[in-house]
Write a structure and sequence with these properties.
Blueprint (H helix, E strand, L loop, with lengths): L7 H13 L2 H7 L4 H15 L4 E4 L2 E4 L1 H28 L4 E8 L6 H11 L3 E8 L1 H9 L5 E4 L8 E16 L12 H4 L4 E4 L4 H12 L7 E5 L2 H9 L4 E5 L12 E4 L6 E10 L6 H12 L1 H5 L1
Parallel strand pairs: 3-4, 3-5, 7-8, 7-9
Antiparallel strand pairs: 1-2, 5-11, 6-9, 6-10, 6-11
Helix pairs in contact: 1-2, 1-3, 1-4, 2-3
Bound molecules: 2-phosphoglycolic acid (PGA).
The site of 2-phosphoglycolic acid has 12 residues, from helix 8.
Length: about 300
């Protein structure tokens, strides 16, 4: 039967005629003229290659082909109604899926927004991927998610990047570090201290390297490379060296975490968190709603 071109309108007309037993009743029910209904049925029969109704006396009967079609059609129209219902739900945001990818460092605040959003839209299914900047950019390039949260939007592709909030990167040392109380530490001093750095591909690392380049300084010797902010925090607290982390990876009271912020000149590196998506992407209603919610409720992220 490949190649039959039957339209939804024809099937609706057919189902109405079959149900109501006359062309005029079907026309009335569907708010169209009787010739419009006749035309649809005629085209349908032409497409199928067999009549679907036969008139005996004044009464209209389904042919064998008509009966078969009615079976298929009833099922199909039911599915279509279900689909229409779903679409209405999407529009009313009762349902839908939201996929966000966030850079590792934003996992300290991004999940906080999910609870309040979910409370407003409980029917929405949410997925949040937590990955480093390189992997996030690969997902962005493949258009895998609705929205992306990152600290350093890529320059080499067409994107929309809206700043969300400040993202200071600070230098931390063990809380008893000899420099912990110093007022202004020259940037060069850092070069002499053992440095712990995030893995290659991390946005934090890229920002640190860029910052040193901008101040024409060589990046400190990396004593240890660690692929997690949490591990870095613990290593610094354990006295292994100093590091740069987003202020958001640390709680309100640094001392409680065994670390102190070093007051180094040209620090903190003042950056921003951005919400990013490909230019030209048509955001789903769910994504659009989440984006607006995020912008309206940035305060929730700072708690
Ligand atoms: P990262 O990214 O978690 O990959 O270091 C953070 C950022 O881009 O600021």
């Amino acid at each position: 039967m490949a190649g039959m071109r039957v339209t939804l309108g024809q099937l609706q007309a057919f189902a109405a005629v079959a149900k109501l037993g006359s062309f005029s009743a079907a026309a009335k029910a569907l708010f169209v003229t009787q010739p419009a209904i006749s035309k649809k049925i005629h085209l349908l029969e032409e497409e199928i290659g067999l009549p679907v109704f036969e008139q005996i006396g004044k009464k209209l009967y389904l042919t064998e082909a008509g009966k078969e079609l009615l079976n298929v059609c009833a099922e199909w129209l039911k599915n279509w109604e279900y689909f229409e219902q779903k679409v209405a739900d999407f529009k009313g945001l009762k349902q839908g899926r939201l996929s966000i990818a966030v850079v590792t460092t934003s996992k300290y605040f991004m999940p906080r927004i999910l609870g309040p959003f979910y409370a407003l839209y409980p029917g929405i299914e949410m997925a949040m991927e937590v990955i480093n900047r390189d992997r996030l950019i690969a997902r962005l390039a493949a258009n895998q998610d609705d929205l992306y949260i990152m600290g350093m939007p890529p320059q080499d592709r067409e994107i929309i990047a809206e700043p969300l909030m400040a993202n200071p990167l600070i230098i931390i040392a063990h809380s008893d570090h000899p420099l912990a109380k110093a007022k202004t530490i020259p940037l060069q001093t850092l070069a002499t201290l053992p440095f712990i750095m995030r893995e290659k591909g991390s946005g934090t690392r890229t920002a640190v390297e860029k910052h040193f380049q901008e101040h024409q300084l060589t990046v400190p010797i990396i004593k240890l490379e660690l692929g997690s902010n949490e591990a870095i925090k613990q290593a610094v607290a354990g006295g292994l060296g100093i590091s740069v982390l987003s202020r958001h990876t640390l709680g309100q009271h640094l001392a409680l975490e065994g670390v102190a912020e070093l007051k180094v000149e040209h620090f903190p590196i003042m950056r921003h968190w951005y919400v990013v998506y490909p230019k030209g992407k048509s955001l789903s209603i769910v994504a659009e709603t989440f984006l607006q919610f995020l912008k309206d409720n940035v305060a929730l992220l700072k708690k």
